[in-house]
Amino acid sequence: MVQAKFWVMTKHFDGFPKNSDFELKVEELPEPTDGEVLLEAVFLSVDPYMRVIQSKNPAFPVGSHVVSDSGWRTHTISNGTGLTPILPEWPKDVSLSLALGAIGMPGLTAVYGIEDVLGLKEGETLLVNAAAGAVGSVVGQIAKIKGCKVVGSTGSDAKVVFLKELGFDEAFNYKTVGSLEEALRKASPEGYDCLFENVGGSFATVALEQMKNCGRIAVCGSISTYNDSTPQTGPYPYFTMIIKELKMEGFMQSSRQHKHPETLKRLLAWVKEGKLQCREHVTKGFENMPAAFMGMMQGENIGKAVVAV
Start and end of every Enoyl reductase (ER) domain (predicted)? Predict the structure, then answer.
């Protein structure tokens, strides 16, 4: 019998999450039956990365490494549904935790937003906010691979330094600039062809005014609004979108699962070639899951936030 630890939400968040919103529980798991596998978490994120430690499913031999959406758990019994094996050509000198980051969901999101939604072209100018995060940092690097000018907005001076190290043409700390409008105009006086939107709220309102005519916006996230107890309202930028003939599209990587295998191979190749750099913010210990989650929501991480179990 295996004892599994798991975190549950005791109540829905009222504003920003608190420690009291989470509870750590323990349960005994039965032995796997035919067709089942026992998963043990190695790294955890919003989408847990796991290995198979017992198996009665021939598709997943003991020792296999998989990605699974199983929640914040140390161990899970699975019938194999929804388990995604790590690429078989994964190099031994590349951390498997990147399967949760640049060579995982955040990387997939970056590629699809740039290629499928924005249709980013060589020579264009891209603006990305939350640029030092798991998605934003990959977005900027892929845009540079494609020969574009990249401007990143982020929330600390240390993150600005990080973005410059990644090759961003311009980067600024939105918390310390006197005027967001002026900072955007200074970074790219000619405006922006594309916006990769992770933040929403007032940032989006200001950024839309800086878009070039026929600009494109990929809406990936809205982190500035996630913890609002009262939904934000207005201003409503429809007139700007009409006059500038802007195109705005929301998207999720999960709707393109048929493209995942080939896209993951491309991301892995960029990492191996040194074209895609990966920074992780690693928290050690399963008991620190809530703290790691809240830290990520407050922007404490540079790159992908993961928990090493």
Answer: 15-307
